[in-house]
Amino acid sequence: MLKLQNSLFILPLLCFCFVLVSEASVHEYNGEKFVSKGNAFVVHGGSEGIYSSFAEPQNVTASGGDSYIRFEKITFRRPKVFANFSSWYIQAIVFEVEDRETIGGSAYGGQRAVCCTVDLAKLGVCLEGEVIHRPSTENPSWPKVFGISFNGDNEVAILPSKSIQISKTGMYNLYFIHCDLNLKDLTVEGKTVWKNPTGYLPGRMAPLMNFYGFMSLAFVILGIFWFSQYARFWREVLPLQNCITLVITLGMLEMALWYFDYAEFNESGIRPVGITMWAVTFGTIKRTIAWLIILMVSMGYGVVRPTLGGLTSKVIMLGANFFLASEVLELVENVGAVSDLSGKARLFLVLPVAMLDAFFILWIFTSLSATLNKLQARRMVVKLDIYRKFTNALAVAVIVSVGWICYELYFKSNDVYNEQWQNAWIIPAFWQVLSFSLLCVICVLWAPSQNSMRYAYSEEASEDFDKDDTTLTLIKPSPTPSKDFRSAPEARSVHGASNGDVEEDKTE
Predict the structure, then answer these.
(1) Hey, is 213 helix, strand or coil?
(2) pTM of the model
(3) 113 φ, ψ (degrees, to nearest 5)
């Protein structure tokens, strides 16, 4: 008795291809070799979310519809030394992820197989050497299985051109499979074209095009606000505000490039490598500068100290390492090479960025703590107030980030088969929204105004800061008394300056 178990064989295939959602809707095959999986030999042809262009499946006609998977010049080649026999079928199988249980089977509860074995053939449920499949309960015409075989001493077998209409929205998978042990070093060439109703952009990526369009508009609005303030009070501009201007400019360029990247991808079906690389690079530069700005502000740069002193080289080194690690990760994930990486390789690239992020956060809050304590000790009320608001905003951002990371891990662990592909775009979009929100907070706190110089560095206020280099030591040494003791009149003068700062805040 044939017992069709849960898709235990399809699971490792889909796990292996979890990150193999192709970067282009034109999937090209350039001599890919078949890999042994169980008792079958497999080439993963692609996985994409595709929306149906039909309101109801019964309205589908042979020639109608905008959603399809088209096979073009799919060619199988075998070496001449093995071209001396007629082979079993080499089959292409297309199935929606919900129908994964219809692929494969086992005889008498034994090990699950994709290829029909002798025992299964004796039961009459399949033909030996072909892929085991049964009709879907929802749509009996699925999965789609067709193939070609080598005849005699032919070295080439060409799969007839074919177009499969998509009548149901879902995550579709394509595999090329053969079960012939004698077909050694078999390769596949050609391409398949996957199309959605609105264009060639894969379904899980389609919402990102509109998202980056809205983000471009958001950056333009933020830029108008910031640049108008900058132009009005350019005489009062601080070095810190120049850095914020640079981040806003890079953000506008990054969002625009991502939008054009997806728009071109949607029109042609092939991702433009040049635009993608520029978008990745601008984004990495923006994030690096943003981290450095937050770190320098936390240290009091431009507000309570004129320079970073001995910490400058350490800050630059941290920023350079973060840029290199992030650039490599983003290029690998977005310029098409992601399909060639396993989970371990991706983890190898993600870990350095995660560690550098954690180091930035640790250093930032350590520096903020020291800065807040000194501002409070010197009773610099105006600067203390703005730093407290800045600290609260960072704390909220970190808490939200940790919560979202937990949700992301939960989402991915419960979506092994990519069934939630329609919501997957929210994960990368959230990080863009969070970073933009934090940038807006910084822009509001440090917007150019006629009172900008109140937050600027001054000689008296910075004396203690110049003597301290904030480090990540767990135990700080006690502050040593200055060798230069002020006279009573000088002390009263400094105290008066602090009171002046308080009075200025009261009159605001």
Answers:
(1) helix
(2) 0.77
(3) -135, 150
